[in-house]
Amino acid sequence: MPKIYFPDVQKIVYAGPDSTDPLTFKHYDPEALVEGKSMRDHLRFSASYWHAMVQGAADPFGGPTRPLPWTEASDPVQAARDTLDAMFEFLQKMDLGFWCFHDRDIAPELETLEATNAAFDEIVGLAEEKQRETGIKLLWGTANLFSHKRYMAGAGTSPCPEVFAHGAAQIKKALEATHRLGGAGYTFWGGREGYDTLLNTRLSAELGRFAKLLRLAVDHKRKIGFTGAFYIEPKPCEPTTFQYDNDAAACYAFLQHHGLEKEFSMNIEANHATLAGRAFEHELAYSAEHGILGSVDANRGDPMLGWDTDQFPTNLYDTTAAMGVILGMGGFTTGGLNFDARLRRQSVEPYDLFHAHIGGMDAFARGLKAAAKIRAEGRIEALVAERYRGWESELGRKIDAGEASLDSLFEHAVKADVGSAPAGRQERLENLLNEAI
Fold first, then answer.
1. Distances in Å between the alpha carbon of 359 and those of 315, 321, 353, 355?
2. 352 annotated active-site
3. Which of 116, 273, 282, 288 could cysteine-pair with 293, CB 3.0–4.6 Å?
4. Which HAMAP family match (predicted)?
5. pLDDT, tens digit, for every residue of 130-158?
6. What is the rounded radius of gyration, in angstroms, for the C-alpha atoms of the chain?
7. What is the rounded distance in angstroms from the CA atom of residue 28 to the CA atom of residue 17?
């Protein structure tokens, strides 16, 4: 029998908005129906292995403060076994249906790649057993191509072909493990695929090799029969000065340039949008409207700090906007809401991990209900439709159909009397949003 790491915590259940028990859901009722589908199926919540089990609340200015008793075994492989036990205990008690991992989260890097892969295979086998026992599924897997010093200049974009080969080997194993565990997707986060200075960088060569690495992964995906989605996760900077996967638009342009746009969709992270100077809603809306929104890393960043704070999501405006976009595109297919979020440095008690996830799940449940209310009432959409109604005219239809020329538009403009564009009614729309929340 595995050791129990959270003996004082029972399974978290829905108790309603009047509950004063901090270890209950106030708004997330997994089986409650919204637009004909359960909250559980709408939200597809997942916990990230790296933050929940491995990250000890370290930050750029200090080491870990949070106890991780499951990592204390002197044998790193035994510590990995214990950590897996703790993770699945946590997932079950939080009633989370999914989990996500990097390869080096779940198994240690040992002296040789062969030994590392053997340890990884063992832990993947144990994870497969736990998934079968619990019914919990893998949302996505990925490879850590950024922590080891070999990746200080990137993996696919490294100036060293040996590093490129090692990164490719890690992707191969991580992709095969994801396939074995029935993962719904596989995520590519460059981590260090960028540059610190252009003085030592061959820009087009690095971008081309990064695309080659992605193409190799696509080929291997087909070879092994993996049918899950491939995601790119945009991030603009930190740790590099500039990341090639800067934001959703940059990623999409890169994929189109290299003929990969049909192979990948986006895994959008809220905190990365903040670092890029974009709104979370913008990154989601851009991706959804281009048919490339696959999954979401649910967290938030601090706009006053220029690094990845990875805080748990509690802003109801953000969660409402996010769920509005997700409902508008018809909901998730392979993706979900993964809590890529870590506890604060002073959150060192075992309960804090549960409080954090409860808060994030309740915040997105409230966002789901508010977004569904907005859609049902239709008042915001009616005002937007009114603003664009001019495009239903003969002139608008001709422009959209490509039947207008500069000459014909010039002739029309000479005869027309245009005073101003339609009213935006931003304040009215903001009030309607507030009323729904």
1. 10, 17, 10, 6
2. no
3. 288
4. Xylose_isom_A
5. 999 999 999 999 999 999 999 999 999 99
6. 24
7. 10
Residue 20 token pair: 């004063």
CB 190 within 8 A of CB 210: yes
58 has pLDDT over 90 = no
Q: What is the CATH number of the domain that holds 300?
A: 3.20.20.150
State the catalytic residue, choosing from 102, 179, 282, 357. 102
3-class SS of residue 307? coil
Instruction: Using a pLDDT cut of 90, give the percent of the chain over it.
Output: 95
> Are residue 71 and residue 212 in the same domain, yes or no?
yes
- In tens, the pLDDT along 293-306 reads 999 999 999 989 88
Closest CA to 213 of 143, 127, 132, 307: 143
Domain that holds residue 427: 381-436
Please tell me whether 272 is known to bind a ligand. yes
Q: What CA–CA distance (Å, rounded) separates 437 from 435?
A: 6
* Residue 247 annotated as part of some ligand binding site: no
Look at residues 57, 60, 85 and name the one whose alpha carbon lies nearest to residue 71. Answer: 85
102 flagged as catalytic: yes
Q: Tell whether the model's pLDDT for residue 209 goes beyond 90.
A: yes
* 18 labelled binding-site residue: no
Closest Cα partner for 105 from 78, 133, 83? 83
Burial of 341 (0-12, 13-18, 19+ CB in 10 A): buried
Structure confidence at residue 46 (pLDDT): 98
Residue 308 among known ligand-binding residues: yes
Last-in-domain residue among 360, 377, 394: 377
Tell me whether residue 78 is exposed, middle or buried, using C-beta atoms within 10 angstroms of its C-beta: 0 to 12, 13 to 18, 19 or more. exposed
Mean pLDDT in residue range 172-199 = 96
pTM for the structure as a whole: 0.96
How many residues are given for the chain? 437
